[in-house]
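Reminder: ligand-aware prediction takes two inputs, not one.
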Amino acid sequence: MLQLRPYQEIMVDGARMEFQRGIRRTCIVAPCGAGKTVIMADMASKARVMGNRTLFVVHRQELIRQSSKTFSRLGISHGIVAADYPMMPDEYIQVASIQTVVRRVNRVHAPTIIIIDEAHHSTAATWRKLMEAYPDAFVVGLTATPARMGGQGLGDIFESLIMGPTAKQLIAWGNLAPYKYFAPPVRADLADLKVLRYGDYDQKEVAMRMDRSEIIGDQIEQYQKLAPGAKAICYCASIAQSQHTAEMFRQAGIPALHIDGDTHRVAREAATEDFKTGRIRVLCNVDLISEGYDIADMDAVILARPTQSLTLYIQQAMRAMRQDPDNPEKVAVIIDAVGNVYRHGLPDDDREWSLESKKKKSGVKPEIPLKVCPQCYGAHKPGPVCEICGYRYPGEERAEPEQRAGELAEILELEKKRLRQEIGRARDVVTLEQIAMQRGYRPGWILKQCELKNIPLGGS
Ligand SMILES: [Zn+2]
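Here is what comes back for the chain with zinc ion:
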């Protein structure tokens, strides 16, 4: 069995308890950084021990390869159901592309459990096909944001939601890096953008307003000021905008590249490698670098595309918040060049999820508790002082919220100290391995700690 962090066990138990009380289709809500793949792998291998089959369904080709890689790394034997892969129907765990599996239902053994990764992508139509094929299966979905584009809930698929930890908790526990969010004034005219039927802005129109040298120039200036030299991903609205942005970064002496779905595989792999080593600092793309796109950790993101999709926003804004084992002090920088924070709030705001669809209120925008500092453009929770640069808002007295923020900061410090002490006390490889497993650190971290602590690695 896998070594799960305590909160991961709670989520897995939660799903089992739902099944026991007669709920057949439940969805686990967990932010990125919660270790979703490990949770899914654990459920699948537990099912395997009981002699049950698991169908693990993903929505993108990249996720097939990545999930398969993770399962193999965890020592979980599995088959793959996707175009270009030979079938291994006798494997108890199958990693499947939704598009392929609905066409091959006769060639796949009926699963006891279906796990749906990135469950917010499941559409009624594909789901129905899967359901008709395997009506007796128990279903667990996983997602950070249980809502579809346009705000529809997932109530047509799932009967209940299991709430995992919040992004705030993961930051406090050290599973996600803390962040600084900057929302400088937006020079592009983004008012009155057309919203298309599927729920997001017309990206052609967005690109027309964003793809201008003075606006891209602002972004470069902000990068140089707020995250100089950082490895950053820049999210654009169109390929042309993305290309122009990369070009202007290069002109400013910052190594940058654009990549998209048509970039040759070899060129893409080279770009990924160069980004990893730091030869490339800024990678520009439209939406290529999203769920399941395997890329080295980064320190910053630049949001150069406004979006109405909370899912897309959270995904892109939080991309830089993955922990860097080589740099436990990492603070991610989010440069929001399009005012997305005014549309959706801060990435780690606590959100109330429901299976119901959000009703569209005419013209009334929900109030987002937010302040943007006039001095540093840092976006933060309301309070008399800017949390990023310490600017004091005129006319606002020291109030209780600040005191409470102080207490919270103290608790966070204590928790961080505890985590540091745990590392400090570790005297052997096994303990370090356990810590690494619990916190999602990479093997490189263990090596480094052994080196620092003079712990011999031993024979195995
Ligand atoms: Zn400030």
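Residues 400-453 form one domain. DSSP finds 15 helices and 15 strands in the chain. We will return to this case in the review session.
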